[in-house]
Each structure stands twice: as structure tokens, then as C-alpha cells.
Amino acid sequence: MNDTIRPATIRVFVALAPPDDAKDELARALAPAYAAHPGMRWNRIEDWHVTLAFLGELPVGLADRLHAPLAELAAARRPLGLALRGGGHFDERVLWSGIAGDVPGLHRLADEVRGLVKEAGIPYEGRPLRPHLTLARARRGDLDGVPAGAAVLDGFEGRSWPAARLHLVGSGHARGPAPVRYRDIDSWPFTGA
């Protein structure tokens, strides 16, 4: 008998992921911020992603409705040429790296993904896309690290890379000091001509 309790819901989003060498390049640029502000809630490098549509808490299994439409979309699209550039923050609480390259194509892709989500019958009340890669969050009472981290990334220009896969991602809840853990529910290569 299996005593493992499965969650009834999972946080779901659709995203792109930079390749490891682009993430490593950004991590090297962030080294001074890591050293100066170890108390920030740094996202794990393997979890860095560019969110196209955040769907929030969904019943486990509801995301299955997205597999076929997202696979079809990826098969019809070519990879986007993107790069990580500079940094900034939201309300001195969230540190991010900016996205450069085919940003208009990124917006079109996000619009298509969001349309598919709605067509699949999944409620979606998303915010306008602000392309970025979230790096860290400030802890309560320590808001200095986020602006300082953004300053470290002034002038950062990462190499260009092809966004080669579309990812459907799930995460559990992060309560307390533990980082959020992400896992691919599924992913599909961009193979369009």
C-alpha cells in the first residue's frame, strides 16, 4: 500500500529555459551579488526560466489538456534567438535579468500560448508579458540586496542563444526558507521551418 499523499493541486506555468552555458555566464556576472547578499532567496540556477504564461494553482491532471496544443504549437514554430541582458527589480523585492533578442517574437509566442490555455478551458487572467528571468527575492527586513544585485548586472550582455524548447512546468509551494522546486511536466522542441 502506498502511503504517499499526492497533492490535489500544482502550480503550473509555460516557459522557455536558457541553455546551461547562458545561465552559467549570468551566474558568473552575479558572483559579487551572491557573495555580498547570501541572505537573499536566490533561485536555483537549474530553475531559471522565462515565463510565458503563469496559470497558478490547477488541479493535478488539468494541465494534461495542454499537452497536445502546446506540442502542436512547438512543432510549428522555429526557435527564438534570445539573450540575457542587464538586470532590474520589481518593488525592490524581486531581482531579475532582462531579455533581449527577438522580443517581438517572444510576445507573439506568449500570446499564442495564452490563447491555447483559454481554448483548453483553463481560466487565465494573466498580466501583460514583461520578459525577464527571476533571479532572487528579498527576505523581509533586507531590501538592500535586490537593488544592489541589479546594479551588479548593469551593462551585462550575455551571448545570444536559441530558445529551443517549450516547457510546461509544475512547482510545489515554497513556504519558509526552502527554495521553490520546479519540474518539467513535459517539453517540446521548436521544429518549425
Subunit organisation of the chains: single chain
Q: Structural class, from helix and strand content?
A: alpha+beta
Low-confidence blocks of residues: none
Distance between the termini: 49 Å
Shape: globular
Strand count:
9
* Count of alpha and pi helical runs: 4
Helix content range of the residues, please? 25-40%
Order of helices and strands: EHEEHEEHEHEEE
* Biggest sheet character: 5 strands, antiparallel
Biggest β-sheet: strands ordered side by side in the sheet:
2-6-5-4-7
On the 0-100 scale, what is the average pLDDT? 90
Structural notes for this entry:
- The chain has helices spanning 20-36, 67-76, 103-119, 145-152, and strands spanning 9-16, 41-42, 50-59, 80-90, 94-101, 132-137, 161-163, 165-171, 182-189.
- The protein has 193 residues and is an alpha+beta fold.
- The mean pLDDT is 90.
Task: From the structure above, extract its key features.
4-stranded antiparallel β-sheet; 193 residues; 5-stranded antiparallel β-sheet; alpha+beta
Topology:
Elements: E1 9-16, H1 20-36, E2 41-42, E3 50-59, H2 67-76, E4 80-90, E5 94-101, H3 103-119, E6 132-137, H4 145-152, E7 161-163, E8 165-171, E9 182-189
Antiparallel strand pairs: 1-3, 1-8, 2-6, 4-5, 4-7, 5-6, 8-9
In short:
The chain is an alpha+beta fold and 193 residues long. It has helices spanning 20-36, 67-76, 103-119, 145-152, and strands at residues 9-16, 41-42, 50-59, 80-90, 94-101, 132-137, 161-163, 165-171, 182-189.
